[in-house]
Amino acid sequence: MGVIMKRTLLRLALLLLAAPTVRSQESAASLFNQVNDLIGDMTGYQVDPVAAASLLRAPTPEEWQSFWSLINHALQGESVEELAWMKPYAESALLYLDQVPEAKPYADWLRQRMDFFEAADEAVQAVKPPPARPAPTAPPSRPKSVLPPTAPPVAPPKQDRDHAAAAVAVEQDRWMRKLEGRPPPARAADYVPRLKPIFEREGVPGELVWLAEVESTFNPKARSPVGAMGLYQFMPATAERFGLALRPEDERLIPERSAYAAARYLKFLHGRFGDWSLALAAYNAGEGRVGKLLKRHKGTRFEDIAPHLPSETRMYVPKMRAVVSVREGTDLTRL
Q1: Which DSSP state fits 229?
Q2: Rounded to whole angstroms, how far apart are CA atoms 251 and 253?
Q3: Tens digit of each residue's pLDDT (9 = 90 or more) over 226-268
Q4: CB 54 within 8 A of CB 41
Q5: What's the domain range around 15?
Q6: Is 118 a known active-site residue?
Q7: Among 215, 251, 312, 328, which one carries the catalytic annotation?
Q8: Is residue 228 in a domain?
Q9: Does residue 108 sit in the same domain as residue 172?
Q10: Is the pLDDT of residue 144 over 80?
Q11: What is the mean pLDDT of residues 156-171?
Q12: Would you tell me which of 24, 43, 65, 232 could form a disulfide with 262, CB atoms 3.0–4.6 Å apart?
């Protein structure tokens, strides 16, 4: 991990502890000690406590770029532990972004991804080994039963298809509990009635209009750090492929045009994979990746390839199933 990233993570941790008010320089040493408690040995990076006050300034563009790269790597990787590790830093970044009006599009993008960081943290906490017992005095040669904290995580056993399906069902239940008490985004009341007919005219179930909740919190100006924009978070090449112009006006930011392109893309993906869960997995992870995994593992369902997908996608599809169920009272798998 580079010096810039380490400093950025420490700064975000400081912001998490200092927000919403900026602390005085005299309290910097105290804050620094709290940060050390918060991050422990995760970065292995030490900063002079007197210099910690300078870390309370806003991160630079270079530092943000480095931070977004780490966020994207965690979401696109297969390590749930990495997602869980990033949770406090993502929380801190969101806390900071919410205080900057110009950063609202990025804040709304990150706000939906916080669900993935939180779910990963819950999953890691659920399988943590019990606290190590004191070492026995006899016999002296008896090995310890708990790995030392510096040991790498043990690779999980490979799952057969029944176990993989059961794991997805557990994940689905977790998302249902998380979303049942959550009200729809405020903008949904305006956009859902306007955009649902567009999906239906394109031959796509209108319930999938709620993909905008998962992608952008129904903020038509939402932006991802890697260049996706709009309600349905289109990258430039995919936007043009499905009929959106980028110049002179970027049509990704026009709700109706973005919904039209999302419906066309979902219809194409469903035509290729024959299943809405697989179509959504491809929408998130890429159709090429999903196609290769289905071929490699001789799969026909999302559950068949879920263990091999990026961490974000493994949670993205169950979350979308839960959103459709909670908002529309409909089972996505039966659409």
Answers
A1: B
A2: 5
A3: 899 999 999 999 999 999 999 999 999 999 999 999 999 999 9
A4: no
A5: 3-125
A6: no
A7: 215
A8: yes
A9: no
A10: no
A11: 54
A12: 232
3-state helix, strand, coil in the chain (%, to 5): 65, 0, 35
Query: What's phi and psi for 196, nearest 5 deg?
Result: -60, -45
Beta-ladder partners of 229? 223, 234
The two tokens of residue 267 are 């219809």
The reply to whether 77 and 171 lie within a common domain is no
Residues 165-192 have a mean pLDDT of 84
CA distance 107 to 102: 10
Taking a C-beta distance cutoff of 8 angstroms, is the pair 229, 250 a contact?
A: yes
| Paired tokens of 192 | 């859902």
Own/partner long-range contacts of 100-106 (Cβ < 8 Å, ≥24 apart): 104/219, 104/221, 105/219, 105/221, 105/222, 105/223, 105/229, 106/222, 106/223, 106/224, 106/225
Would you say residue 12 has pLDDT above 90?
no
CATH code, domain with 227: 1.10.530.10
Interior CA angle at 294 toward 292 and 298, to 5°? 125
Query: Quick one: 120 and 167 in the same domain?
Result: no
Cα–Cα distance for residue pair 32/12, rounded to 1 Å: 12
- What pLDDT, on the 0 to 100 scale, is given for residue 149? 35
Q: Mind listing the pLDDT tens digit for each residue in 114-134? A: 999 988 888 888 766 655 555
CB atoms within 10 A of CB 12: 24
* Pick from 65, 72, 68: nearest CA to 285: 72
Are 31 and 17 a contacting pair, CB within 8 Å? yes
Measuring CA to CA, which residue among 199, 165, 202 is closest to residue 324?
199
Specify the pLDDT at position 36: 52
Tell me the pLDDT tens digit for each residue of 21-63. 333 434 444 544 555 555 454 445 454 544 444 445 567 788 7
- Which residues, including other chains, have CB under 8 Å from residue 199's CB and lie 6 or more apart? 205, 206, 208, 209, 259, 262, 263, 266
pTM of the model: 0.73
Which amino acid would we find at residue 303?
Answer: E
How many helices (H) and strands (E) the chain has is answered by 14, 0
